[in-house]
Amino acid sequence: MKRVACIDVGLKRVGVALGLNGVALPQNAILRKNRNQASRDVSSFLKEWDIEVLVVGLPKGGSSEDEMRRRIEHFVSLLDFKGEIFFEDEYGSSKEAKESMQGVTKQKRDGKVDSLAAKIILERWMHKAAHQNQL
Questions:
Q1: What is the pLDDT of residues 40-60, one digit of tens each?
Q2: Is 2 helix (H, G, I), strand (E, B) or coil?
Q3: Could you tell me the residue range of the domain that residue 104 belongs to?
Q4: pLDDT band at 22 (very low <50, low <70, confident <90, very high)
Q5: Angstrom distance (rounded) from CA 47 to CA 42
Q6: CA-CA-CA-CA torsion for 26, 64, 12, 108, nearest 10 degrees?
Q7: What CATH number should be reported for the domain holding residue 63?
Q8: Going by fewer Cβ within 10 Å, which terminus of the chain is more open, N or C?
Q9: Exposed, middle or buried by CB within 10 Å (0-12, 13-18, 19+), for 85?
Q10: Rounded to 10 degrees, what is the CA torsion of 49, 92, 113, 76?
Q11: Average pLDDT over residues 68-89
């Protein structure tokens, strides 16, 4: 089974999740001071875990879809990563992540929601990939 990770690129944080043995696990989010620092931190994370496949959350639909796609694709182009890259629709993942945390913990801006969103995006991709024998 390939080593898989997912990122959910935001303006302030990058949510991160790992796919290990078919299970998606949220990791600590990467705080984003600027895109170069954030891309270096993501690249280090991918190297540290020896990631072979990167899934990237991409918003589909909505008025800013083209602008967000351009920004996210540019961010991905800054990564020092030679593995396979897949883009997965992130629609509703942040809302779903926030709802899953309601009542469990006080919601802070510490990136937990961002990484839970990355976990949800990764689960969607792994579900599809398993049915298409891509894993």
A1: 999 999 999 999 999 999 988
A2: coil
A3: 4-131
A4: confident
A5: 9
A6: -60
A7: 3.30.420.140
A8: N
A9: middle
A10: 40
A11: 94
Look at strands 4-9 and 23-26 and give their pairing. Answer: unpaired
Q: Is the pLDDT score of 132 beyond 90?
A: no
Sequence-distant (≥ 6) Cβ neighbours of residue 11 within 8 angstroms: 32
Instruction: Name the pTM for this structure.
Output: 0.86
Joined tokens for residue 83: 């593995």
For residue 110, which of 123, 97, 125, 121 has the smallest C-alpha distance? Answer: 97
Q: What angle do CA 22, 72, 16 make, to 5 degrees?
A: 35
Q: Identify which has the larger pLDDT, 33 or 99.
A: 33
Structure tokens at 102: 């309601």
Residues in the chain: 135
Quote the number of domains for the chain. 1
Phi-psi region of 70 (alpha: psi -120 to 50; beta: other; left: phi over 0): alpha
